[in-house]
Design brief:
Ribosomal Protein L15, Chain: K, domain 2; single chain; 291 residues; 8 helices; Four Helix Bundle (Hemerythrin (Met), subunit A); alpha/beta; globular
Length: 291
């Protein structure tokens, strides 16, 4: 599997040396063959030379510039080529011909991640999902699986000073749900970036329905990493990296203080690459599905 280059730090210089991407920081220098790279995600302040951009475009390597929260600021994309066109046509074809099958597969992948992350046996649910032929029933099963995951999450954070009764959002009504919502947003933004990096359409979805500007395919992919994001939230609370002093109330909404967001982002940067690998595995399998 090719490598996605992720730049977190500020004041990094990306340039070209022959057929390699040269990365220079204040303390280190390194280079990577472009044949080993499938995309570049830039979260920090970076100097990017025109030679490096030109070579990346020639090699069909997209470059995405993102905020510290993972929202896309800009995209530097190769000219639309046969691979990107083929992937998007494949995605449309799968939407019309295999939508339910892909949705079922997404939920089964979510079940596997919950089993691994929270040590729950969901074999009974996976068998039920395989037999489903109705979307409403499928979504009902997904809801039951999520409920079991949140029960385990609640048990996980009992030793802390926080309490968790149920998942709520728009707006979150307590500190734990506020932290979950923020972390899920980071995962959603990461999913969107990877979808664009790989040449797919973030709005053609299989499990979630598009609403307004909502990138529904990003939410589809989010289900695969949601268990790890949920567990990550629990670890932050257990390790007391975030306390009740890190939250504020605005109108009817509980949210993280701006000064506390940096602590979550620092920890999140440590799991980004693992999350990207999970998402990339799915997209490789997705691209290989036959009509």
């Amino acid at each position: 599997m090719k490598q996605t280059v992720i730049i977190y730090n500020h004041y990094v210089e990306l340039s070209r040396k022959a057929e390699r991407l040269f990365i220079k920081t204040a303390h280190t220098e390194s280079s990577i063959p472009l044949s080993n790279i499938d995309g570049i995600l830039i979260f920090g302040k970076v100097k990017l030379t025109s030679d490096a951009i030109s070579l990346c475009m020639k090699k069909q390597i997209p470059i995405l510039l993102l905020t510290i929260y993972g929202q896309i600021k800009a995209q530097i994309l190769p000219p639309i080529g046969s691979e990107t066109t083929k992937r998007r046509l494949k995605q449309v074809g799968l939407y019309f011909l295999k939508r339910l099958d892909i949705a079922k597969y997404l939920i089964k992948r979510k079940c596997l991640e919950i089993e691994y992350t929270f040590d729950i046996n969901l074999e009974h649910f996976k068998v039920k999902v395989e037999k489903v032929s109705d979307y409403a029933v499928l979504l009902g099963l997904e809801g039951q699986v999520s409920k079991l995951m949140f029960q385990k999450f609640e048990e996980m954070i009992r030793p802390t000073s926080f309490t968790f009764r149920e998942r709520n959002y728009h707006p979150p009504k307590d500190e734990v749900n506020a932290l979950l919502s923020f972390i899920y947003t980071l995962g959603y933004n990461l999913s969107t970036a990877l979808i664009l990096l790989k040449g797919f359409d973030p709005y053609i979805s299989f499990l979630h329905s598009k609403r307004g500007s909502h990138a529904a395919f990003s939410s589809d992919l989010m289900e695969i990493i949601r268990p790890k994001l949920t567990h990550f939230c629990g670890e932050i609370l257990l390790n007391k990296l975030i306390t009740s002093d890190d939250f504020m109330k605005k109108d009817d909404c509980i949210m993280l203080k701006k000064s506390s967001i940096a602590k979550v982002l620092t920890e999140f940067s440590n799991i980004k690459e693992n999350l990207l690998e999970l998402l990339k595995e799915f997209l490789i399998e997705f691209e290989g599905v036959e009509f």
